[in-house]
Specification:
Blueprint lengths: L2 H11 L5 E4 L5 H4 L4 E4 L5 E6 L3 H6 L8 H6 L7 E7 L3 H4 L8 E5 L3 E5 L12 H30 L13
Parallel strand pairs: 3-4, 4-5
Antiparallel strand pairs: 1-2, 2-3, 5-6
Length: about 170
């Protein structure tokens, strides 16, 4: 199950975000690198941090951007809403430890909101410059994926590697 893709789909179809990005942020210096980030029509950010294990969830507290002092100093740079997304079986183990400034979602095949994220009314909208940075980042990422894809196709056509053999007969 690809939680990143499910989160991106949720941001686009449920939250009505214009863009959903994976491991990209215009404000990484303040807020770190989010797993999934949505940009709403009014240029606000919605961040989803994906945690697959309890130890991963607990390790998240060590991040500089989770420090309450840093968060309070740069609250205007943090997203409008912040969610943790965990697999369904992890929900009961982390529910009591989720910070008050974040929401919690669980996922088996679809996302279900356990606790809605409070709105950070001090969050600034993305500036035009930050939006351009995101567009450039998305374009660069798309270009690199296209290059890797074309390179793999060329290697395959030249016979450098072939499709793997089936593991068993049907």
């Amino acid at each position: 199950m690809n939680l990143e893709l499910i989160a991106m789909r949720w941001l686009i179809y449920e939250k009505k975000c214009e863009y959903a990005l994976f491991e990209r942020s215009p404000r990484a210096i303040f807020c770190g690198e989010p797993d999934v980030l949505g940009i709403t029509k009014d240029r606000h950010l919605v961040e989803i941090e994906i945690k697959r294990t309890l130890s991963d969830f607990k390790q998240d507290r060590i991040k500089r951007s989770r420090n309450p002092i840093i968060r309070d100093m740069y609250i205007d740079r943090f997203p409008r809403q912040f969610y943790y997304l965990v697999p369904s079986e992890l929900e009961n183990k982390v529910a009591a430890e989720v910070p008050e400034w974040s929401g919690l979602m669980k996922c088996s095949h679809a996302i279900e909101i356990v606790r809605r994220a409070p709105i950070n009314f001090k969050a600034k909208r993305l500036s035009v410059k930050e939006c351009l940075k995101m567009v450039r980042s998305m374009a660069n990422h798309s270009f690199s994926v296209l290059q890797k894809y074309q390179s793999a196709i060329a290697r395959f056509q030249e016979g450098e590697w072939s499709w793997p053999e089936p593991m068993y007969e049907i």
